[in-house]
Amino acid sequence: MHWIYLICFTLLSAGLLALFQVRPRDFTDVIFNTGRKTATLSDELNVLMGTPARGFFNQDYEIKQILKDTGRADRYEAVTRLTLILFAVGAVLALLIGNVYLVPILGLGFSLVPIWYLRSTAASYKKHLNEELETAISIVTTSYLRTEDLLRSVRENLPYINEPIKANFEAFVYESELINANMTSAINSLKMKIPNRVFHEWANILIQCQSDRSMKNTLPTIVQKFSDVRVVQSELEAMMQGPRREAITMMFLVIANVPLLYFLNKDWFHTLIYTTPGKIALAICAAIILFAFTQIMKLSKPIEYGGDGT
User: Fold this and answer.
1) What is the dihedral angle through the alpha carbons of 238, 244, 250, 256, rounded to the nearest 10 degrees?
2) Which of 10, 56, 140, 164 is the most buried (most CB within 10 A)?
3) Do 286 and 106 meet the contact criterion of CB atoms below 8 Å apart?
4) Distance CA 103, CA 93 (A)
């Protein structure tokens, strides 16, 4: 019978690793190449276009950008090492309670905690970024429609632009005045510093305005997209608040039922904790909870316009 249990454990582990797109090479890369893995062009484009990275440890460049944007770039190695340590802690905890089937589930669950925290931080940062971008491009657009001088429009509105984008607009002014008089090049440089699709579209229109001033009349339409995104985001959060709260409540009830069985029916409790079918049932429940919570975290990210502008 032991070989049957071993097969079940192997299939359960393989399924979880496939579900979270974990490869054995991911662990060796983190252990032996932490902090030395270079970002590919595809990684950079995914971050700039707002596309989430796939895989368990494949979002290195995205995590680095999140830490850099929030002023914690020096903590990247600590985060990756903490992920591995928490994986080991989860696996050891599963072994301590005598349930080998929980090893991959608790390991993955514990190791995902730092990534969930970073993504939550990134979500808050991106919401704040969108709010500041909406204000910045709105006032710059208004000035540009009046003066038809982009450099002057940005310069006179710098006191009203806040972080985290103020430094980028200041760099645009300095580059245009002191380094490179080519306005198209300066706009491109500014565009690549801010990972937002609507802002990229706004910058592209500004580039076209350098050769065709009539294109400036389309800028207010681009600015309106930020307001549309903000309204839809508020409606979505209000709509998702109830289901999210119910899902978390159900997860809590499922977990709380395990110690509650000890007081209600000790025989059921011992069957669930100490027998092989009970251990497998616990592992399946834990896997479902982990998967459900992962989906909830995905729904918490800010929405953006798609690549087609819709």
Assistant:
1) -110
2) 140
3) yes
4) 8
- Residues 44, 47, 51, 53, CA torsion sign: positive
Residue 58 confidence (pLDDT) = 47
CA distance to 11, 215, 216, 245, per residue, from 219 (Å) = 55, 8, 5, 40
DSSP string, 101-117: GGHHHHHHHHHHHHHHH
Question: How many distinct structural domains can be found in the chain?
Answer: 2
Boundary (domain end) residue, out of 173, 195, 225: 225
Q: Which pTM was predicted?
A: 0.61
In order, the DSSP letters of 176-196 are: IIII---HHHHHHHHHHHS--
Query: Looking at 210, 225, 240, which one is the last position of a domain?
Result: 225
Top pLDDT among 44 and 169 is at 169
Give the tens place of pLDDT for each residue, 199-258.
888 888 888 888 888 888 888 888 888 778 778 777 777 777 788 888 888 888 888 888
